[in-house]
Amino acid sequence: MEKKHRVIIVDDHALVRAGLRLLLDRDPDIEVVGEAGNGRLALSEVGILAPHLVLMDISMPQMNGLEATAEIKRSYPQVRVLVMTMHNSKEYVQASLKAGADGYILKEAAPEEFFAAIHTVLQGKLYLSEGVSGIEDSD
Question: Residues 137, 60, 8, 16: is their CA dihedral positive or negative?
Fold first, then answer.
């Protein structure tokens, strides 16, 4: 029997976390091992639960997702981080990648794209949401 991919959901909205958990329960290769409502709690949960993947919101109280991602990648470089957000801007994509995120997906994405993003990131590949891949480079 293959081991399941251990996932932590980080979002400041309890309803979003619950919905993501229900969605992820449909994938037999994924086990949701924890949740956190802010970046500070996420750091603690990662240290305790040793996930393979963290699904990370950006806009959260106490410590935002960009700060938490940078700290997770610094302390636990083997842990993959998939940023999931409503922010559809080049600045947030670049900041997420600079923080060490392994992928970036918009919350408006379809479930099929969500699962594709998760599995791409778990394979060690970069994933950028279809919704952000067309953002113009203004430099």
Answer: negative
CATH number at residue 54: 3.40.50.2300
Number of domains present in the structure of the chain: 1
Domain for residue 117, yes or no? Answer: yes
Residue 10 lies in a domain: yes
**20: its two tokens:** 């993501």
- Whether 40 maps to a domain, the answer reads yes
Question: First vs last Cα of the chain: how many Å apart?
Answer: 49
Residues in the chain: 139
Q: Distance between CA 139 and CA 129 in Å, rounded?
A: 21
Q: H helices within the chain, ranges in order?
A: 14-24, 39-49, 65-75, 90-99, 111-122
Residue 137 inside a domain? The answer is: no
pLDDT digits (tens, 9 = 90+) for 26-64: 999 999 999 999 999 999 999 999 999 999 999 999 999
pTM of the model: 0.92
